[in-house]
Structures are given as structure tokens and as C-alpha cells.
Amino acid sequence: IAVTADLYSFEGVSQPTVLLYDVAQVNSKRPTTGGALVGALGDGLEPVPLVYLERAPGFGRQLFGGVNVVGDPKPDLIVSAPTASANGDGTGAVFVFAASTVVSGRNESSLTIFPDQRERASFGQDLGATASSGMFSTPAAIIVGAPLSYRSGTVNGTAFVLPVDY
Fold this sequence. Notes:
Layout: E1 2-10, E2 13-20, H1 23-28, E3 48-52, E4 63-67, E5 76-81, E6 93-97, E7 105-107, E8 111-113, E9 126-130, E10 140-146, E11 158-164
Parallel strand pairs: 3-7
Antiparallel strand pairs: 1-2, 2-3, 4-5, 5-6, 6-8, 9-10, 10-11
């Protein structure tokens, strides 16, 4: 289970972090009847913190998982950071982390998607993905929303569909 933490202390700095929880740990907290309130930290849950290699403001704004976009047999985690500065000051970025390569701490993404200078801001504010379909010969795709896109000379928003053919 992936959860966004806007200000999580990692390496002594409060920063955006994605916390990964083991489903078995979470399920062990479920009572046989009724519900339970369990703290995200402590209470026997030990999340694996996931941060990008460099500072990425807004990291974890949107999360999308369960879709294989890098071509290995495991589903990947797609993480947006709509105010990251990967290709301009605060233009945003989307990172794909292959499930088989994620470790606790700083991680390099398997795929980084960033806008050109016309986007100006909020690339990755919205996020989605589709799985590949062998029945229709359709590749997996990542859908990225940029509501403040300046692509046509005014702030009118743009949505991008990026086929991922591995």
C-alpha cells in the first residue's frame, strides 16, 4: 500500500515522501469484527520510505500503482511531483518506480517524464495509467494532467497520453 506523506522526516529533513506498507502488516491489525484505528507510524506498522534521488517538491501528489509499465512481471508505482524542477523551475515531473528495484530511502526512477518549457507548472497534478491489452494490441499508457499548461499561449490545461511499449 502506498501513502503520501507531505512532511515526513527523512535524513533529518521534513520532505514529501511516499510510505510503502506491507499489506500483511496492515491486515494483521484488522480485528475479526468491526474496525480499528491504526496509526500510520508506530502501532506495529513499519513503512518503507520512498523518496526521489533529488529534492522533488510535491513528490507523491498523485500515486498510481498496479500497472506494469517497465516490462518486468511486477506492477510498478507511478508518482507525480507537480512542482518538481526536473526540467525547469517548478514545472513538475512524473516518476515510474519498478517494483523490483524499490528500496528504503532514495530511489532512482526507471522512467522520468517531464514537460517542455511550455507547461510552466503543475505537470503531474493529475495522473492515471492503463494496462496493456493483448486482446486489442494496446500498449500500457501513462496519462498525465497539466491543468496549468500554457501550451496554446494561455493557461488552458493539457492532458498527455504516453504509450509505453516495452
